Amino acid sequence: MTVPSLGLGLVGCGSFGAYVLDAVAGLPGLHIAAVADPEPSRAKPLGDRHGVVALDGLDALLDAEGVDIVALATPPATHAEMAVAALRAGRHVFCEKPLATTTEDAARVRDEADRSAGTLVVDHVLRYNPVLRVVQRLIAEGLLDAPRRFLFENDAADQDLGPDHWFWDPEHSGGIFVEHGVHFFDAARALLGSEPESVRATAVRRPGGPVDMVIADAVHPGGVLATHLHSFTHAHRCERQLMRLDHGFAETRITGWIPTYATITAWVGDQEAERWEQLPGRFGELLNVPGARPHGGERITVTVHRDAGDTRPARGRGVERTVPHRVEAVIDLGGEMRKPYVYAQSVRAAVADLLHSARGGGAPVADAHSGLTAVAVARAATLAAGTGTQQRVTIPARPAPLQGPACALAEGSGA
Ligand SMILES: NC(=O)c1ccc[n+]([C@@H]2O[C@H](COP(=O)([O-])OP(=O)(O)OC[C@H]3O[C@@H](n4cnc5c(N)ncnc54)[C@H](O)[C@@H]3O)[C@@H](O)[C@H]2O)c1
Q1: The domain containing residue 17 runs over which residues?
Q2: pTM value surpassing 0.90
Q3: Within a domain: residue 208?
Q4: Of 4, 255, 297, 331, which one's alpha carbon is 20 to 30 angstroms from that of 56?
Q5: Residue 12 C-alpha to ligand 1 middle, in angstroms?
Q6: Tens-of-pLDDT digits for all 415 residues of the chain?
Q7: Looking at the domain assignment, is residue 373 inside a domain?
Q8: 114 and 145 assigned to the same domain
Q9: E-assigned strands of 37-113?
């Protein structure tokens, strides 16, 4: 039996909307049905490129034939109202991040998604990134201890963000924690397997200009500390990012805001050493993200330096282990050169997850609860930074708690 293809209608034909359409074109079970933007000079060429009608906004899109999924790629402050309207009209929604610019609006969308028959996926692309999936898997399988510390340092580019761009205006973007930080608050939630309880933050303004650098430290249950720094101050070629996980006896270092490369170093015992040596043989299974197409150059390598240390017990934070062997593992998707490819495949996998869920395949990974939690943390961080007092702010909205690191994988899915 052939499953009917679902039609996707895009609202917002700016730079990322165009990118999303290119990424999902040709996805099995999906076709592009229409595009919409009040600015005809954006809608028309994009519609022509994909051979579909160009409309002037969401209302026209909802009136059009054959639009089963509404993809929202408009500025952040518009997302909540449009997502609610599309869900009420019986459509599925693929919503660009952030889900909303306030916690209240994000909760409204979450409530509507819970009530509605439609599926909502937030484009938290990191949830569909193979490097992060492998690290989550290694934590779930106990090869890596749950992180006790998360750090993300983001030297991001502002090269294409002119002074009049909506990005700098919190009314439209929600501010840096909301507009961009949500990706990493959500990734931390997946990697740590918990939601933070409180946050403290600082915002720094460029001389005579907007806030362009922010830092937040969020405390997760069990005293796990997560630090998030975003600095939109660089030329494209000088962008650099590091995500670091401290697992106690092991460390993970992931580079690229779209992760393309990671190194893991670990001190292990005899049995763990054997398990690490088996990892490259599980390469295909570990790197598989349903809906994403590997380019073929990905690799996982593991070197175990046997007896690199002595056999006397090693102790840290009261935990004692016999760990004489040193592991060096590399997860390589091709490095920074492959960022555009990996990025597009993550968007494709997110839409594949929506298709899978829309056809009864269970909740998507980046669902409305993820979207709400990320916005709630981002808003608490924004509030904390605004006080200028370094006070901790308690994070209010508490969606259903996760069951542990493994559940964030939400296996399955897949066109
Ligand atoms: N997931 C990611 O990795 C990622 C990356 C970049 C951007 N984004 C998100 O994508 C969204 C769009 O960003 P962008 O850089 O493409 O912005 P953009 O300014 O280039 O494009 C926005 C488009 O939306 C249109 N628009 C505005 N209001 C509208 C409305 N009410 N109805 C219909 N169209 C409307 C504008 O005319 C414009 O064409 C933002 O939410 C941004 O955060 C996500």
Answers
A1: 6-126+347-367
A2: yes
A3: yes
A4: 4
A5: 5
A6: 677 899 999 999 999 999 999 999 999 999 999 999 999 999 999 999 999 999 999 999 999 999 999 999 999 999 999 999 999 999 999 999 999 999 999 999 999 999 999 999 999 999 999 999 999 999 999 999 999 999 999 999 999 999 999 999 999 999 999 999 999 999 999 999 999 999 999 999 999 999 999 999 999 999 999 999 999 999 999 999 999 999 999 999 999 999 999 999 999 999 999 999 999 999 999 999 999 999 999 999 999 999 999 999 999 999 999 999 999 999 999 988 999 999 999 999 999 999 999 999 999 999 999 999 999 999 999 999 987 667 888 887 555 544 433 323 232 333 3
A7: no
A8: no
A9: 53-55, 69-72, 92-95
For helices 103-115 and 368-387, the axis angle rounded to 10 degrees is 170
Residue 408 within any structural domain of the chain: no
Q: Among the atoms of ligand 1, which is closest to the Cα of residue 343?
A: 3
CA of 384 to the centre of ligand 1 (A): 27
CATH of the domain at 119: 3.40.50.720
Is residue 259 in a domain?
A: yes
Residues with CB under 6 A from ligand 1: 11-17, 36-39, 42, 57-58, 73-76, 78, 96-97, 123, 125, 179
Q: Give the mutation target among 11, 15, 16, 44 for probing the ligand 1 site: most ligand atoms within 8 A of CB.
A: 16
Candidate of 11, 22, 37 to mutate for ligand 1, largest count of ligand atoms within 8 Å of Cβ: 37
C-alpha closest to that of 272 among 247, 304, 241, 230: 304
Residue 156 and residue 80: Cα distance in Å, rounded?
26
**168 lies in the same domain as 279:** yes
116 C-alpha vs ligand 1 centroid, how far in Å? 25
Number of domains, the chain? 2
What CATH number should be reported for the domain holding residue 331?
Answer: 3.30.360.10
**DSSP label at residue 256:** T
CB under 8 Å to 396, separation ≥6 — which residues?
103, 376, 380
